[in-house]
Each structure stands twice: as C-alpha cells, then as structure tokens.
C-alpha cells in the first residue's frame, strides 16, 4: 500500500494530512511542505525481536552518586545549564542568525576543553580555517578543541564514535543531512532525523551534544522548535541587534531551573560575561523623567532590575497606536483596560509606547504594576522618585497580587542604592530589607497615593 503523503510545518513541526498555505498550529504562512520521511520497509508493523526487562522504581540503586557536571568556568553559562554540563545530555541552542551563537559556543568549547573535557566543534557552516581564525580573534587559538568541518551526519557520527569526546558541538543542525532522508538539508524531515540520530547517539555513548539551531521565519529552513522535545535542555540566545547585550535563556531544562538567564555583552573580542546585569540595565538611566520606572524583576533564580519607559501622547490617527518592545502586547492592552475600567483613567485618543531599556525581554506578570506606574507617570507628566522600585501583579478586578521572591527583589534594589519600593500588600509577610515599603492592595489606591488622582 502506498504511504499517503504527510505535511509538516517548518516553524512549529505540526503534522497535517494535506497541504495548506497557513499552519493551523502556529499561524505562520508558507511554512508547510511535504514530509518525505524515513522509508517504511516490510515488517513495519511487526513486533521487535528483543524483549526488554522492566525494573521496579524501588529497585533502582539510589546510593550511586549522579555523574558529576562539568563547569565551563563561565558562571553565566554554567548557571543557565543548572550548574554545569550534565554528561550525555542533549542541548539545543537557538537564536536569530548573527546573534552570536557560534561565538558563544566556540568560547564555551574552549573553556570546557581547558577544564579537561574532550571537546569537538563540528562546523557545517564555516571551514575549519575560518573557525580557527575566529578562535584566534577571540584569543582561544591555544585551547585544546578539535575542529571538524562536515555536514554528512554519518561521517560525523563515525568521527565522534572514534574520537569519543565528552562534548560535541554541532553548528548548525540545519546544515546536517542524512542520506536515508530524501529531502534537502534544513527541511523538517532532515532536521528532525539528524537531531534524533544525534540525541540517541548522545544517550548511547555518553557524549553530551550541543545542537545549534537558527530561528527563522522564512520557512525554508526548519526552526529549532521541531527538535525542542527531543533534547534535555533548550536555550535561546536573544538580544536586539542594535544593543550589545545578549541574554541566554533556559526555556526548558531537565537538569536545572527553567527561565534562568545568563547575560553577556558582545565586544570586539567576543562575548564578555555580565555578572551584575541590574547595574548594567540601569546604567543608561539619566535623571528621573516622566514615564520611567524601575522594575524589580526575577529572572529564573536571580533578581534583575530594569528600567521601563513609557510615552503617552495624543494621537493624530483614528486608531491610537499601542507599541511594545520587550514586553507582551496583550498584557499591555489588559493593563490599559483595567486602568480605564477600574480607575476611570482613559487612554482613548492617546498613543502608547512601552519599552524595556537595554534590549531586555520581560515575561513576568509581576511587571504589571511597574508598567501601570510608567503609563500613569507618562500620562500625568509626573516622575516617580528616582530611588523607588515597583513590582506586583494586577488582576482584572484591579486588585494587586503579591509577587514571588519579594525579599530577593528588595535585597537587590537595596544593593543598588534604592531606598523605597511600591509593592502589593499581603501574601507572605516580608522583611523590608532596610527599605521603605509602600504597600498597596489595589490599583485605585495606588493611583490615588502616587499620582493624587
Ligand atoms: P556569530 O557567532 O557568527 O552568530 P551566529 O552564529 O548566531 O549566526 O556572530 C556574528 C556576529 O557577532 C557578527 O555580527 C559579528 C559579531 N562579533 C563581534 O562583535 N565580536 C566578535 O568577537 C565576534 C567573533 C563576532
Ligand atoms: Mg553561526
């Protein structure tokens, strides 16, 4: 019986039985193409020849110590990995082209190799000589890293089998191809098959693999999302092109906390680690001005302070603009609606712009109150005191909900010279960490107290 064709989306990996112009899974256009998967030979539906044995969970020996992690001695990277590299783990590092993935991983490869972990860096995009040139520029030419330039996955697996490294970096998964898969490198089937081969190889041979994946919207090349579920850890390297800051974020981690971030700065000599991101994100802040508010946030396990900037101006258009950089547009619409419905402060006829300074992206709901404060401060043209931080979640009723890890937020703020905080009342009683606390239970109270409206 002929196999009916199947189709999959190169952005999100969803499968379909027929082609369409738009993916129902992720809403992207022109990303669906025919899936020429692995051939299905005779006996495809018969049982396997070997019988496995089950082990009772309680029979697993617990006294065996977990295998030690290897630290790269790059604290920002080690933290995102959950305290170093776990042996035989598979890691995906995704990011826009040109954001600095190859630079980061070459630096990491050098560090791991110097820590005694045998490391191979396989480049499918650059010749070994080019990688060496880059390493020279980064001052890593003497690091004991092995380089290979290949795109044929079978050859790469043979090399890895023979060399038996502790860590293999594959840059990038989209350039790899398997001869058993009948489609172009970068297609969904190739990327999925190559990632599958590499991750199973990692588990079988005890080699950690790092797969580099470009995030792309064109649909020509499969996005890293099609391999996310196959790996143990998914890291995204993000940042704005115009800014020198780069953030490595753990979006999935079987061996550590998710949402942990590492902060780097792109310099002429590669990526430099930023050990105190709050100081950096606030370094561009000038004199207190209307619309500017400092949010005391938490990223993963670490407090990070950053500046929110809002601009509110009468609109010349019939539809006022709502523009957000670094935060969620839907959440901004919600805050505007709550301000209007619960506090009677309309934003109709006003353009609203919101920006998180420094190219940082925030996803915490605890930023709600800081956003509301920035919007009100811009609208009323009145600046908040320069030494105040703000945090707290706003509910649709206009009530303020306490944010997690309050003490950490306050401690960080105090360390950076802030004297007071505006935060929600209630929740776990928290110590003031030596700061003046201005605790509020609802948004109306906040508006009245802070802006006298
Ligand atoms: P790269 O690591 O090649 O990005 P990716 O692998 O994610 O595509 O980084 C490319 C950019 O980084 C390029 O625009 C130049 C910049 N860069 C520096 O600013 N300093 C450096 O030392 C290096 C190596 C790159
Ligand atoms: Mg690259």
What does this structure look like?
Pfam families: AAA_25, ChlI, Zn_ribbon_LapB. InterPro entries: AAA+_ATPase, DNA_repair_RadA, P-loop_NTPase, RecA_ATP-bd, Ribosomal_Su5_D2-typ_SF, Ribsml_uS5_D2-typ_fold_subgr, Rubredoxin_2. Belongs to the RecA family. RadA subfamily. The protein has 10 helices and 21 strands. The chain has 453 residues and is α/β, with parallel strands linked by helices. Helix 7 (329-343) links the parallel strand 15 (322-325) and strand 16. The longest helix has 18 residues, at 188-205. It is globular, with a radius of gyration of 25 Å. The structure holds thymidine-5'-diphosphate (TYD) and magnesium ion (MG).
Q: How is the biggest beta sheet arranged?
A: 9 strands, mixed
The CATH architecture of the largest domain would be: 3-Layer(aba) Sandwich
Radius of gyration: 25 Å
Instruction: Tell me the name of the CATH class of the largest domain.
Output: Alpha Beta
Strand content: 15-25%
Strand order, largest beta sheet: 6-5-7-8-4-9-10-11-12
Distance linking N and C termini: 74 Å
* Coarse morphology: globular
Each distinct ligand: thymidine-5'-diphosphate, magnesium ion
* Class of secondary structure makeup: alpha/beta
Number of helices: 10
Q: Report the CATH topology name of the largest domain.
A: Rossmann fold
Mean pLDDT: 88
Number of domains: 3
- The count of strands amounts to 21
Q: Quick one: CATH superfamily of the largest domain?
A: P-loop containing nucleotide triphosphate hydrolases
Keywords: ATP-binding, DNA damage, DNA repair, DNA-binding, Hydrolase, Metal-binding, Nucleotide-binding, Stress response, Zinc, Zinc-finger
Region (Lon-protease-like): 351-453
Pfam family, one: AAA_25
Domain RecA family profile: 66-215
